[in-house]
Records
---
Amino acid sequence: MTQTTPTRRTFLMAGTATAGAMLTTGASGLLMPARAQTLAPTPTMRGGANNYRPGAPIVERIGGGGFWMTGTVRRAGDGAPLEGIRIQIWAHTTEGHERDAHSHGATLTAADGTFRLEMPQIVPAFGQAHGHLAYDSDIDSSPFQTVFLRPVMRSPDDKTLNADFVLQPA
Amino acid sequence: MPAPRAILIWAALATAIALPLIVAASSPLLEWRDPVYIVAGLAGVTGMVLILLQPLLAGGYMPGLRMQRGRSLHRWVGALLLVSVIVHVAGLWLTSPPDVIDALLLVSPTPFSIWGVISMWAIFATALLALLRSRRSLGPRAWRLGHSALALIIVVGTVLHALLIQGTMGQVSKIILSVLVVAATLKAFADLRAWALLRRRKG
């Protein structure tokens, strides 16, 4: 799995996931001890879907590149890596605004559930250096619920940003 | 007041106004922004600079602009502040409509937007109060208390809004401007004592 830089959001999400897992195991653990390692689905983040463009094409690279968006896609519950899942990525970069079509691109996950897409350097916009990622069940037509993420960079000088999806079967 | 001292005070104010604007206008981030977005950002910085002027004019602290002339200019600067906020929000809306809609609906993921929106509504409310006051629909007591309370909200909201943003304002000039805005506001509040109106009625 790709390393995740600890931010307040990942910390909170980890806390939420742990709490969720504890709740689930607390409730079902008595009945089904074998399912103790339940992985909670990633919730959509506030503002995650802003300036999303449904159906942005799968690309080798967005623009000139130089910055890497990385992450993993796994299935909620057992945490199995999901292959061939379409993830759209967009941001305000050195080459364009979020709303610009050329700032968007999609990629597919590998057999181990990882994805990485090269894109132009993300620069702070609307007060934060942040990226956007989407798993859209309408576009991907795989049986999981749609999730939009909006990870924030720890520093605007970072050359990479990571976001992990745990998808809930629809 | 002797002329050299007056010149010094005005020069200090001119620097306090010009510095954050010059720093913001030469931010490296501007290279990657459309003109509309650049204007929107600078309108925000302009608004914050105008907020520094307001307590200085209301308190009659600027040489050559004692009470009446200072108050008259205070009204014009207030109108300019209203315009700059409208340009700020409208420009951001054109740049990224969903982000501004989130901010206005108070569901934005960024903590600073809520402070900006609070300030915006407080500025709009002040404009409405000023309009009612000029038509004599509002008494002097209600006007002073309302205006003072809203001014505090505007200052606190704007300073928090600016400090939390990773944007075109320089970190140092932003902190200096914030300290000046808060200090000038506290000084004017201490001198004008609008809250004495509350005490008088009780007593």
---
Amino acid sequence: MALKIGATAINKLYLGSTAINKAYLGADVLFSGVFSPASLFAGGTDGVWYDPSDLSTLFQDSAGTTPVTAASDPIGYAGDKSGNDNHAIQATAAARPTYQTGPARATLDKVDDRLSVTVPTGGFTGTMVLATDQGTASYGVTIPAGAYDIGGRSGLYFPGNAIVGQLIRDGALSAGEAAATEAYFVANGATASYGAVTNFSQFWLNWSEITSFPLIDTSSGTNFAQAWQNCTSLTSFPLIDTSSGTTFGYAWRNCNSLTSFPLIDTSSGTSFSVAWYNCTSLTSFPLIDTSSGTSFDRAWYNCNSLTSFPLIDTSSGTSFDRAWFNCTSLTSFPLIDTSSGTSFDRAWSNCSSLTSFPLIDTSAGTGFGYAWYNCNSLTSFPLIDTSSGTDFSRAWQNCTSLTSFPANAFDNISGGDFTDAFTSTALTETSIDNVLVSLVASGIAAGTRVFGQSGGSAPSSTGEAAITTLRSRGWTVTVTGGY
Amino acid sequence: MRLTIACPDALRADGNHFAMVLGYGPADAETYVALNWQDADGNLYACASLIVSDTFVSKAQSTLSRPAWDVDNIIDMDAARRAQAALVFSLTPVAAMPDKLTACAGDDALATLAAMGLSQVEVDI
């Protein structure tokens, strides 16, 4: 029922100068000036609206026969108040959320609890407002038809511990509508801001339906591990406050639709392991502050659209294992500070567009296995410090354009595993001689002593003499030409 | 009382028959589904957590009988009894075992699982 003058609905009603919130005709509300989410579904607009504060919508069983009446009752059925009959159910008893009061909410154990709705044909493309005990936010979403968990993705991943309210509308909400809906849920007891949350680990993990992410308050967050992992529909990311964040491991892994990334404050971050792994649509990366970062392993693994990389501060980094693996579009690499790095295994493997490589500080590096494997556009290589290195197996294998390699590169190495190190390269006679003579200079006569080269030129008599010496020290040497 | 239960992979089928006996219908055959948890030795578990009554605990430890709803004999009572025989019930967390259905009381399900020596299986690594 609505109060109208002719065909025009009345938005505001006054008694004198005092606005009236509600007017009744008998028991029926004739006029309401108070926002109700129901208004968002006028005219048959599809979507869902769950409201645990309305006990009449909650039932213990999935058939909707036994009402929820008290705290600790299971919720097997949450009625949809949008008018679309998209009720959410949980048929398995152990997986039902629990009703709690103060505020009224559906609590999730984050082990197996979840309610599921069957999204109708056509799906929902619009806005989701999710109000929890830890924060409230609005997201752009595209949800396909079929089963959809409104609480706890796979029973595990949810930005909070309880649902205080949730609304999804097929059709984007205006900013005002979203704000009004958030305020409605907050009035029902939802926490307005995520500003007090410190641990965001796995909050939005696997939320592939999110197409936009809001600028929420994350200023207290220290742990962002896996927070947005597998959010595969996000094309951009807001400039959230991550200044307190220390752990960013796996944070944006597989966000493979992100085309850009903001200059967030990561100055406190120590772990960036796998952080942007497989962000295959990123074409550039900002100059974020990584000065506290120690772990960069797999950080930009398979970011294969990155054409350049900034001169970030990696001076504290110890692990660079597979950090830029398969960044196939990188044409150059900056002179970053890798002086603390110990593991460089596969770090630039498959960076097949790199035409040059800088003289980075690898003096602490022990592992270089596969480090530049398949960098098949490199024509030369700098005289890096290999003095701590023990494993160089396949380090330059398949660098099919690599012709020039410096003298004295391995004079001070700590170990002799060069298995297939220069297999399928294009080393000149001088370069292969340089390598072999340098290995002799290293004096390595114990431990693993294997060297492999194929492609390019055979060594000269100088190189052959070096091979003879190496073999006398127990080395197994394979070179082009078969000497 | 909140009860958190770790069901090892080998007992999943039996555990789900047991869950149907204690539960309300055939949907309870989906109680132990995803092997999302593992112990230090890498043994995988499907876990469930729910608030239960004392009656539930008593029923779980008593002679099992086919529930009235199971007129079609969906439940394999032998399987349910095998799961019951493997049941370890504790008011405090005890280590999950790969040949036991371990049920522990505790208000915080995730904390209970951690105390049972279980950690989440890494996602899609």
